[in-house]
Amino acid sequence: MQWILWQRPVLAFKITDLIDRILRAWCDENGLHRGSVEARQKAKSLLQWIELGITDEHELTDLIRDDIVISTK
Asked: What domain of life does the UniProt record list for this protein's source (predicted)?
């Protein structure tokens, strides 16, 4: 079996601000607090998508809105 190593991007302020905006909007749309289990799951999903190189705000918003998640199994 061959493993592929992905370089993880450094979470610069620009990225953390992006995550914050998307997560805040998602929580507002769904009537949830940012500390909720669902919000934490969405934040984790956002980080995973960003680690794969997706950084477009609209695309990330659509991915978490449509409940598209990356399996970690």
From this structure: Bacteria
